[in-house]
Amino acid sequence: MSGSLVVVGTGPGKAELMTPATLAALAKATDLVGYGPYLDRIPKTRPDQRRHRSDNRVELERARHALSLAAAGREVVVVSGGDPGVFAMAAAVFEAVETGDPGWRALDIRVEPGVTAMLAAAAEVGAPLGGDFCAISLSDNLKAWTTIERLLRAAAEADFVIALYNPASKARPHQLAQAFEHLRTIKSSKTPVLFVRAAGTPEAKVVTTTLAAADAAQADMRTLVIVGASTTRRIGRWVYTPRSEGAAS
Amino acid sequence: MSGSLVVVGTGPGKAELMTPATLAALAKATDLVGYGPYLDRIPKTRPDQRRHRSDNRVELERARHALSLAAAGREVVVVSGGDPGVFAMAAAVFEAVETGDPGWRALDIRVEPGVTAMLAAAAEVGAPLGGDFCAISLSDNLKAWTTIERLLRAAAEADFVIALYNPASKARPHQLAQAFEHLRTIKSSKTPVLFVRAAGTPEAKVVTTTLAAADAAQADMRTLVIVGASTTRRIGRWVYTPRSEGAAS
Fold it and tell me: What is the mean pLDDT of residues B192-199?
């Protein structure tokens, strides 16, 4: 049991947003474990480094594989997108530790923080997360839709800015439309809504609209959606949420 | 009006968590504008670079100064801690743009995302932000305490993990205790509570406790507090929130 396991995130996609600490962990690893497209973002640094590619929806299985490699003495890095602690692999690793081989609890495990999608998306458009905010994953693979509706309702009623992760996929095309419908019953129709695709990459694309006009079809798997608070404001091409309740009014 | 303004964050403190994009912006700047202790984190890269230090509580004034430098043709970088879009300088810059010289709207303004404190804090202890979560600033310099209580209540009732920024300062020693009192009326007394001081630096210190036992005196200006959801779990030295509602139970 002399190996180690580090959970890292690649950030939004381009190398300039990956931290030096993450790059150092990747360079030191004997084994990289992750979803194929995330592994493809990592430059080859050592010829003997093994890459273990997996599909998207097998987080726990992937985590167990990584832990068993570490237990066998390998220097393992588990590769997520964004920040590994936000709707990503770090939670899966600790769930695998809790439910797996008791020896795994003694392993040298570490998490390296990264730039999560909502921060890169916010930076593309200004400072929409400048006030109090929340992050909700719209994927109901892992939780009930009624739970998601409860979170949306609470966030809207309390007037948080809302960052929506996993707003849509081929298997779940209708949920974002349902979420907008739900939010329209609570929030002003003029609330700014942002669709930020491929944030933090050269292909970044921003659509700024309102809750009334927001069309769920504009989101795909690479989109992060931000729904403003009552104070969120548009000035020209920028959108921001003032820190102060009474700002600029 | 040929200058530019980039808003960056230093991340949690150590250079290894500052992105290459941020380091590149800093290296290119003719002028750095920021709160003194944040500027002190930046290595000197060019001898002709001017540093404009300011106090902590003058964000709008600092933003206007930075914009006027950019309007005069300088390459300006505004330096925040963490991520500049989360309870930091980016919102102040856009507020200054909205309320200031109309010519400022035509300036070349950009925001570089960074690693915000809650991500570094979460990484120190495992994956407490693994589920849906919110970020609330406890500072009532800029908003009413009744607003903060409304946010806390909504977050607790909806069962978000809660990250508390600015939990305490010399001028506000009692608010975190009030926040815990408020949360105890809604959440289980066994809810995990984490005090993470100087996250992402070599001096990082973690206290893991419960909502019943949480002592607000353990927080200071460098502490990030995380209050778990009902699903947040402790395994040995680690704390994580499963992505799935029914995980590991």
Answer: 97
> Would you give the end-to-end CA distance of chain B in angstroms?
60
Rounded percentage of chain A residues whose pLDDT exceeds 90: 83
Does A6 touch chain B if contact means CB atoms closer than 8 Å? no
Share of chain A above pLDDT 70, in %: 98
Instruction: Give the domain B118-240 fold.
Output: 3.30.950
The answer, for B27 touching chain A at a CB cutoff of 8 Å, is no
Tell me the Cα Rg of chain B: 19
Domain B4-115 has CATH 3.40.50.150: no
B24 contacts in A (CB within 8 Å)? 16
pLDDT tens-digit readout, B79-112: 999 999 999 999 999 999 999 999 999 999 999 9
Closest Cβ opposite residue A132 in set B84, B126, B136: B136
* Chain A interface includes B34 (CB < 8 A): no
Query: What confidence tens digit (pLDDT) does each residue in B9-35 have?
Result: 999 988 899 999 999 999 999 999 999
Q: In this complex, which of B19, B87, B240 lies closest to A94 when CB atoms are compared?
A: B240
Q: What are the contacts of B40-49 at 24+ separation with CB within 8 A?
A: B41/B10, B41/B13, B41/B15, B42/B10, B42/B79, B43/B15
Mean pLDDT, range B202-220, rounded to an integer: 96
- Does pLDDT of A105 surpass 50? yes
- The predicted structure's pLDDT at residue B246: 60
CA–CA gap between residue B50 and residue B79 (Å, rounded): 13
> Is residue A84 within 8 angstroms of chain B, CB to CB?
yes
How high is the pLDDT of residue B179?
96
Do the Cβ atoms of B114 and B22 come closer than 8 Å?
yes
Residue A73 has pLDDT above 80, yes or no: yes
For residue B118, pLDDT over 80 is answered with yes
> ipTM of the assembly?
0.96
Task: Quote the CA–CA distance of A147 and A90 in Å, as a whole number.
Answer: 22
For all residues of chain A together, what is the average pLDDT?
93
- Does the beta carbon of A104 lie under 8 angstroms from any beta carbon of chain B? no
Are B228 and B235 a contacting pair, CB within 8 Å? no
Spans of all domains in chain A:
4-115, 118-240
Distances (CA, A) of A86 to A8, A132, A166, B40, B221: 11, 17, 12, 30, 24
